C-alpha cells in the first residue's frame, strides 16, 4: 500500500528545521555594549549565602571580597597592608593584646558610620555563629572598642598567625543597623558592608553588584558586576569562548578546558590571570590501623608516587608538583620535605616488609567521585604502580561522593584517601594546624584533635607544643620552626602532598589584566576595559 | 451502572488514593534521606566546626530531636501546607519550589511541544510509503533518539550550536546582564504579559537549545508510537470499510485512522509530562537551567532534608494529579475504555 501526500509532513519538517535555524540566526545578532553595562563574571560555584558568618565557599568569599573590606590585606609580597585599619596592629609587651586603629569617615552601604563598635558587633557575631569561627576560637578571648576608632583584641595566648587572620574577609564588618535581629541568625541574601560594591540583587543563580558611590577608597573601575553561576565546565568554557561572559573565575573547570583556555590566552584571544597558589592536593594515610600503621609502608607508598607524571597526565602540567604541606608562597626557603619518586627504593622497602615475592599489599584508594581531578589522579597512580610495582602493591580504587568522604573521614573509614585543602586565611598555621594539631594522643596515635578530623590519626610526641610555640615566634625564628614541623610530618608521613592549584581567571581581551590580592581573590573593582593610550 | 457513573467512581477512587500515595512517598523519602550517609550540619558548618557549634546548629535545625518527633513535625507541617525551611540557608522550601518549578515546567512544556510536533511529523512520514526510505529513516530516528544518552546529546548540541557556531547561549535561563520580568515565574509568559519583547527574545534564546534538545530526545517515542499505531489502524476493518465507501485516502487517514492512533500517544504524552515535571536532570545540569531537578540534586548533595522532602512531595502530587487528568481525558475520548 502506497499513499500519496507524503510531501505535507516533509514540508512541515523542513519548515520546523528552518524555524529553528532562523531563530538561531536571529540570536546571532545579539551584542552587548561592554562600556555601558556591568561586567559579567561567571563561576561554577553556587552561592547560597553572602553572610560573612555563613559564607565559606571560595566563590562566596570571592564575592564578599568585593562587597566588604577586611581590616588588612596581604600584598603580593605577603606584607600586611591596612584597609579598614589605619595602621599596622600594635602588639602589647606581653603579646596578649592587640590594638588596631581604624579609619575614620567610612560609611556602610546603608549610610551608617563604620566605627570600632560596628567592628566589635561583627566580630562577636562571627565568633558566636560563624561557620569558620573555630579559626578564632583558640586565639581570641574578647574584643572591645577602646574608643570610637580603636579596636582591641584580647588574646588567650600570643599568636603570630593572627596577622594572617586579620586579612580574612570572613571578619569583614557588617552594619549593626542592617543586621539588627540577625545577631544570632544568618542573613543570607543581603549584605551591608563597607566595600567598593553594594549588593543590588541576590539570586541563587545570579548576584548583581553596583559601585558604592560613597566608598572611602578608589572607586570601582567598572559599572558593576553580574556574578553568575553556570553548572558545568563546558558551559563555562563555551561562555568565555563565545564572549557571552567577560570573566571566568573557576577552579572547577576540566583540565582540558583549562589547557584550551591557556592556549587561547597565548594566542591573545583571552587574557589569563594567575593568583597566588593557596590550594594543596594531598593524600591522607590512616596511620592508626594496619597495614599503614607501619611507617615503612607509608614511606614506600610515598615513593611510588611520580608527582611530575601525575600532574602532567591529570592537568597537562597546569598544577605544580608539591612536596610540602605549606604552599611555597607562604613559606620561605626550603619547600621540598617529602620523599621524591623512587620506585626502586619503594620496591626494596616492600621486599623488606615481606611483599613482592608472591605477596602483594592490597590497599583501597578512596577518591571523591564528584571531583574529576581526584579520579584521574587515582587512575594514573594505579597505572603507574602497575608499571613499577605490580608484584608488590595493588591499589583498589573506590569512588565515594565528597559529602560522604568528609563525614566518614574522622571515623577512620579510609586507608588512603585523596583530598585538598585551602587555608581559611593566608598563613602557614592555617595549613599545618588543621592537619597536624592533636589535643590528646598516645604515642604516635592522635586520639582527639584536627589530625583525627583529617583522617590520619597521626601525631608525634612534642609536635603539638611545636605548633603552639611556632605561633608565638616572629620572623625567621618562626619559619625555622615551621620547617622543623614540616620535616617531622614528612618523616612521619601521615599525608603526602601531591600538587598545588593556582587560582586562574580568564578575561576577554578588551579588559585590563587581572589583579589578585594576597588571599587569592580576584580584585573585581580593578576590572576595566583597556584604554587605547 | 452507566459509563459516566463508572468514570466518576474511578476518578474518585484515584483521587482518594492520592493522599495515601503521597503519604507513603513522603514517608519513604523522609527515611531514605536520613539513612543516606552524610550530615546536613557538615554542609552548613563544614567538618571542622567545634562540637558545641555543631550541637547548637543541630538544635537550631531541629535535628537533635528523636526521629519520630522529626517525622511528626514533618507530617504536621505537610498537613498545614508548611514544607519547612532549607537547612543550608533557611529559605522557605515553598519559595524554592515556587521559583524553580516554573523553570522546569517551562522547559518541559516547550520540550513536549517540540517533541510532539517533531515526533508526529516524523511518524506520519513513513505512513505514506510503508517500507520506503522515509519509513526506514523514521524508524531509525525513533529508535536512535530514544537510545541516545541525554547528557552526551546535550553536550554535543551545546558544543555545536553554542560553542562552535555561537548561535545560542551555552546555558542559563536569561541573559545575565538583564533583569528578568516579574510575575508567574514563566519567563516567556511574563515577558508577553509585560510586553517586554527584549526579555521575550532573551528568554526564548536561552530556552531554545535545552528545549529543542529535550524535545528531540523525546520525539522518538512519539514518532515510533504514532507509526506503529497508525500502521496497525490503517490495516483495520473500519478503515477498509471507509476506503470501500470511496473516501479519499487523505480523509481516511486524517478523519478515521488518526484519531484512534493518537489515543495511545496521548497516554505517552501524559506519562512524559509527569516525568518532565520532576525535571530533566541531565538537561538542566548541562544547560545550567535553574529548574527543580537541578535544585533537588544540589539539595541531595547538601543533605538538605526539607528541600529534598518538599520537592519530592510536590512533584509526586503533580504526577498523581496529571496521571488522573490523562486517564480522564483518554476515557472521555475513547468510548472503548471501561472501568
Q: Your description of this structure?
A:
The complex is a heterodimer of chains A (533) and B (339). Chain A has 533 residues and is an alpha+beta fold. Chain A has three domains: 1-65 and 195-276 and 503-533, D-Maltodextrin-Binding Protein, domain 2; 69-185, Alpha-Beta Complex (Dipeptide-binding Protein, domain 1); 279-501, Dipeptide-binding Protein, domain 3, CATH 3.10.105. Chain A has helices at 7-28, 58-67, 116-129, 134-137, 162-165, 233-241, 255-266, 295-303, 307-315, 343-352, 372-388, 402-409, 429-436, 450-453, 463-470, 475-492, and strands spanning 39-43, 72-74, 80-82, 90-91, 97-101, 140-147, 150-155, 197-202, 206-211, 225-229, 247-249, 271-274, 279-285, 320-321, 361-368, 393-400, 416-422, 440-442, 445-448, 495-501, 504-507. Chain A has a seven-stranded mixed sheet with strand order 8-9-10-1-11-21-12, sandwiched between helices. Chain A has a six-stranded mixed sheet with strand order 14-20-13-17-15-16. In chain A, β4 (90-91) and β5 (97-101) form a beta hairpin. The radius of gyration of chain A is 26 Å and the shape is globular. Chain B has 339 residues and is an all-alpha fold. Chain B has a domain at 95-301: MetI-like (MetI-like fold, Orthogonal Bundle). Helix content of chain B is 76%, strand content 0%. Chain B contains 14 helices and no strands. Chain B has helices spanning 3-35, 40-45, 51-61, 67-79, 93-128, 133-147, 150-164, 187-194, 197-234, 237-244, 249-277, 281-286, 292-301, 305-333. In chain B, α5 (93-128) packs antiparallel against α11, α5 (93-128) runs parallel beside α14 (305-333) and α7 crosses α9. Chain B starts with a helix and ends in a 6-residue tail after the last helix. The interface between A and B is large, with 69 and 67 residues.
Amino acid at each position: 500500500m502506497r499513499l500519496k501526500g507524503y510531501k505535507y509532513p516533509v514540508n512541515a519538517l523542513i519548515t520546523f528545521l528552518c524555524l529553528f535555524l532562523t531563530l538561531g540566526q536571529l540570536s546571532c545578532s545579539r551584542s552587548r555594549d561592554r562600556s555601558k553595562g556591568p561586567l559579567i563574571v561567571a563561576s561554577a560555584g553556587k552561592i547560597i549565602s553572602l553572610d560573612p558568618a555563613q559564607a565559606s565557599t571560595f566563590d562566596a568569599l570571592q564575592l564578599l571580597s568585593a562587597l566588604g573590606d577586611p581590616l588588612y590585606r596581604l600584598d603580593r609580597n605577603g606584607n600586611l597592608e591596612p584597609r579598614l585599619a589605619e595602621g599596622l596592629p600594635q602588639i602589647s609587651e606581653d603579646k596578649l593584646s592587640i590594638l588596631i586603629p581604624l579609619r575614620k569617615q567610612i560609611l556602610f552601604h546603608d549610610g551608617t558610620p563604620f566605627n570600632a563598635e560596628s567592628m566589635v558587633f561583627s566580630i562577636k557575631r562571627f565568633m558566636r555563629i560563624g561557620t569558620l569561627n573555630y579559626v578564632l576560637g583558640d586565639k581570641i578571648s574578647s574584643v572591645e572598642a577602646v574608643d570610637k576608632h580603636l579596636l582591641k583584641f584580647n588574646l588567650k595566648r600570643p599568636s603570630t598567625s593572627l596577622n594572617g587572620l586579620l586579612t580574612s574577609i570572613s571578619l569583614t564588618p557588617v552594619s549593626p543597623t542592617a543586621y539588627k535581629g540577625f545577631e544570632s541568625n544568618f542573613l543570607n541574601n543581603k549584605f551591608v558592608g563597607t566595600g567598593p560594591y553594594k549588593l543590588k540583587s541576590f539570586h541563587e543563580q545570579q548576584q548583581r553588584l553596583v559601585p558604592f558611590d560613597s566608598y572611602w577608597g578608589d572607586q570601582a573601575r567598572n559599572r558593576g558586576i553580574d556574578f553568575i553561576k553556570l553548572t558545568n565546565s563546558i558551559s563555562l568554557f563555551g561562555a568565555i569562548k563565545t564572549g557571552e561572559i567577560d570573566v571566568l573565575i573557576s577552579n572547577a573547570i576540566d583540565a582540558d578546558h583549562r589547557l584550551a583556555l591557556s592556549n587561547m590566552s597565548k594566542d591573545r584571544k583571552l587574557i589569563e590571570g594567575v593568583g597566588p597558589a593557596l590550594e594543596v592536593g594531598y593524600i591522607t594515610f590512616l596511620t592508626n590501623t594496619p597495614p599503614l600503621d607501619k611507617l615503612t609502608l607509608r614511606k614506600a607508598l610515598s615513593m611510588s608516587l611520580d608527582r611530575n607524571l601525575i600532574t602532567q597526565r591529570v592537568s597537562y602540567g597546569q598544577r605544580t608538583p608539591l612536596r610540602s604541606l605549606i604552599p611555597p608562597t607562604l613559606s620561605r626557603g626550603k619547600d621540598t620535605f617529602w620523599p621524591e619518586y623512587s620506585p626502586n627504593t619503594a620496591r626494596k622497602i616492600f621486599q623488606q616488609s615481606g611483599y613482592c615475592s608472591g605477596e602483594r599489599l592490597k590497599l583501597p584508594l578512596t577518591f571523591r567521585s564528584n571531583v574529576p581531578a581526584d579520579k584521574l589522579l587515582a587512575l594514573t597512580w594505579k597505572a603507574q604502580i602497575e608499571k613499577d610495582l605490580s608484584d608488590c602493591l595493588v591499589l583498589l580504587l573506590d569512588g565515594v561522593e565528597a559529602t560522604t568522604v568528609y563525614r566518614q573521614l574522622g571515623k577512620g573509614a579510609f586507608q588512603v584517601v585523596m583530598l585538598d585543602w585551602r587555608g581559611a586565611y593566608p598563613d602557614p598555621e592555617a595549613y599545618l594546624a588543621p592537619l597536624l594539631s592533636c589535643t590528646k594522643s598516645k604515642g604516635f596515635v592522635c586520639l582527639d584533635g584536627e589530625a583525627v578530623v583529617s583522617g590520619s590519626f597521626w601525631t608525634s610526641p612534642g609536635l603539638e607544643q611545636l605548633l603552639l610555640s611556632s605561633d608565638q615566634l616572629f620572623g625567621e625564628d618562626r619559619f625555622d620552626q615551621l620547617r622543623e614541623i614540616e620535616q617531622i610530618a614528612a618523616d612521619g608521613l601521615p599525608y603526602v602532598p601531591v600538587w598545588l592549584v593556582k587560582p586562574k581567571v580568564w578575561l576577554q581581551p578588551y579588559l585590563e589584566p587581572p589583579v589578585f590580592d594576597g588571599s587569592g581573590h580576584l580584585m573585581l573593582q580593578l576590572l576595566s576595559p583597556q584604554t587605547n593610550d | 451502572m452507566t459509563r459516566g457513573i463508572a468514570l466518576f467512581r474511578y476518578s474518585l477512587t484515584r483521587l482518594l488514593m492520592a493522599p495515601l500515595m503521597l503519604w507513603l512517598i513522603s514517608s519513604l523519602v523522609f527515611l531514605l534521606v536520613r539513612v543516606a550517609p552524610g550530615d546536613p550540619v557538615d554542609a552548613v558548618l563544614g567538618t571542622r566546626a567545634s562540637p558545641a557549634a555543631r550541637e547548637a546548629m543541630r538544635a537550631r535545625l531541629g535535628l537533635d530531636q528523636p526521629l519520630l518527633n522529626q517525622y511528626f513535625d514533618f507530617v504536621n507541617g505537610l498537613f498545614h501546607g508548611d514544607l519547612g525551611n532549607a537547612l543550608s540557608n533557611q529559605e522557605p522550601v515553598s519559595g524554592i519550589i515556587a521559583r524553580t518549578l516554573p523553570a522546569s515546567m517551562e522547559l518541559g512544556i516547550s520540550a513536549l511541544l517540540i517533541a510532539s510536533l517533531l515526533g508526529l511529523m516524523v511518524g506520519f512520514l513513513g505512513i505514506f510509503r510503508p517500507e520506503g526510505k522515509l519509513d526506514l529513516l523514521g524508524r531509525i530516528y525513533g529508535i536512535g533518539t530514544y537510545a541516545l544518552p541525554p547528557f552526551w546529546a546535550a553536550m554535543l548540541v551545546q558544543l555545536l550550536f553554542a560553542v562552535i557556531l555561537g548561535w545560542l547561549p551555552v546555558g542559563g535561563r536569561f541573559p545575565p546582564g538583564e533583569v528578568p520580568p516579574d510575575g508567574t515565574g514563566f519567563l516567556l509568559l511574563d515577558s508577553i504579559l509585560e510586553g517586554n519583547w527584549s526579555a521575550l527574545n532573551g528568554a526564548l534564546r536561552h530556552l531554545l537549545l535545552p528545549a529543542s534538545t529535550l524535545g528531540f530526545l523525546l520525539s522518538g517515542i512519539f514518532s515510533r508510537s504514532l507509526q506503529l499505531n497508525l500502521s496497525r489502524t490503517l490495516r483495520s476493518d473500519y478503515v477498509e470499510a471507509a476506503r470501500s465507501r470511496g473516501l479519499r485516502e487523505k480523509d481516511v487517514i486524517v478523519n478515521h485512522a488518526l484519531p484512534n492512533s493518537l489515543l495511545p500517544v496521548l497516554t505517552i504524552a501524559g506519562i512524559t509530562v509527569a516525568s518532565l515535571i520532576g525535571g530533566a536532570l541531565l538537561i538542566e545540569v548541562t544547560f545550567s537551567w535553574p529548574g527543580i531537578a537541578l535544585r533537588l540534586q544540589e539539595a541531595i548533595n547538601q543533605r538538605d532534608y526539607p528541600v529534598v522532602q518538599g520537592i519530592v512531595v510536590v512533584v509526586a502530587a503533580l504526577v498523581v494529579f496529571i496521571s488522573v487528568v490523562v486517564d480522564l481525558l483518554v476515557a472521555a475520548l475513547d468510548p472503548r475504555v471501561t472501568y
